Every structure is written in C-alpha cells, then in structure tokens.
Amino acid sequence: MSPAVLSADAVKAAARGCRFTLVGLAPAEALDPTPLRAWLDAGYAADMDWMRRRLPERLDPGAVLPGARTVIALAIAYHRPPQEQGPIARYARGRDYHYAHRDRMQALRKRLLELDPTVETYAAVDTGVAMEKVWAERAGLGWIGKNGCLINPKLGSWLTLSVMFLDRAVDAYDRPHDRRCGACSVCLTACPTGAFPLPGVVDARRCLSYQSIENRGAVPEGLRPEFQNRMFGCDVCQEVCPWNHRPQPEGDPRFSPRPLSALSAAEVAALSAEDFARLAAGMALARSRHDGLRRNALYAIGGARDRSARAVVDRLVDDPSEVVRDAARWAQGQIDRPEGE
Fold it and tell me: Cβ(22)–Cβ(74) under 8 Å?
C-alpha cells in the first residue's frame, strides 16, 4: 500500500541528489488571483497573450494535477565571476536553463517513484503554467524582490527556477520567506527604461529583457538607445541589488559562457544564419532567432554610436529581413549624429 504522506527530508534529499541548488516544499493551495489579473489588466504583459490563457491552471495546482497536495520549488544557481562581463544576460551565456531543469526534474521524478511507485507529478519551468516565483517564495527559497526577481539571502537573485506538483502530502512544509528589501529601492531607480511602475511590478512593454527576447518586431525607438552594451536580456536591476554584492559561490558549471556570448555586437550582427544556428544550439540565446539577435546587435551598435562597426551596419541596410533593415537604418542615424547631440 502506498504511503499517504511522503517524508519531506527524503523528497529534499532526492532533489539535492539531482543537483538542484535549492529545494523547498509548500502546500499546493490555490493562489490569490488578484495580482496576476491586475498585472494583465494593466497591459503589463505586452503581447504575451499566452499569460492570459489557462488562468485557472496558473492559479491552482489542482487544476493541473488532480489531487495535488505538494509543490516542490527548485532552483539552480548561475552566479558567475564578476570579471565575466558581456552584452548577454548572465543566465543566457551558457546552456539553456530549461534543458538543465528538465533533465534534473526527470531524474527527480524517477527518485520520487522509488519512494512511492504510484505518485503522480506535474513539472514545469517558466514555459509551463506554474507561477514558479510565487511558489519559490511560499516554499522558503527566497522572496520576490522589488525588481520582480526571487532573492535568496545567500545566493542573491542569480537563480533559475522550476516547480513540481505532487499528489502526495509531505510530513513537513517550509515556511514562506519573509521579504527583506526593506526601504531599498536602488533597482527601481537604476532601471534604464523605467520599467517598474510599482515595486515588484514589471511593465514588459518597457523592459529590455522582454524587448530583446520576446518582441519579434521593431523595438520602440525611445527604448533603442538603452540597448548599448546589451544584446539579449538585461541584468541592471540584479547587478545593483545589494543582496548580489555579497560573496557567493560560483554557480552551476553548465551555465559557463559559450563562444557566442563573447562576440562583439558587430560580430553578432555579421553572423550568417548557419553560424548562428551552430553557435546558439543548446543556448537560451536561440530564442531570439537569427534576425532577432542581429536586430539587437544593431540597436547595441547604434546605442553606443560605435563608428568602428559602420561597415557591417551599412551592409545590413539591404538585409532581406525587414526588422534588421530597420535596425540598421536606425544605427546609421545614431552613428551619423554630430558629437554632443
């Protein structure tokens, strides 16, 4: 006969054995729908219409996994040495974190089946319907900071997250983490595009991470100058966070930078489709697609007014991609502006 309740210690040991950096457990109770609905109604999701779909499942684990009793919140750290600077957000410089989480969650499911052969699970990274940051906070992994990122007191916010729902209770749950940002608001004022209408609330329409990754069209001209030194994602609100200035262990080696993350904006703009496919394979950078990353590189060139990249900019004015042509013309205009303007 299967046990009605699993050992919390055994579940956590299984997760750590699958190389998750952090693990916590929370009761699988329905979430308050108010914050998500308010965010959607304000238009802060931009054109991410998928966020509005399947709302009942996003808010209630039982709507995804009948009989859900427990949420396992999981994290993998990706902190890198400070000297590893670059125009790519830190989480995206190495292996795609989705693959890392999925591989380890598959291994975790096998271990849970050894504890209880009849256990049913649902697992998701941030492409599923689970609200992984909310569950991580409820399971004690950290708190959702004013920049919208989960912050752990020892590891800061350099974490990628996933969750697993179980149709079994455990014998002990973790307490939700208290919020420790206090009066600090440095992340809110440091955002180059003013993407925080309220603490903890991100307006995707103004966020460079959204614009550089999710937006497939032309980025609004008012935001383009802020792409200087950025081609995929934005770490500003994390880089200024005091919790990220404390000494931290190096993150999972699978997030070590790959060659594509070391290229300059001019080199990325000049990449052929074949070279992009080869270099971006297995990286989160692949989400931007060839034209999207070249578009971003041209915005970075224009934002920095990098005259040394003029030759590649001029060549891309006639590129087959409309979004690349538009970005190249804008970069030309920025480079040609008189000094001091």
Answer: yes
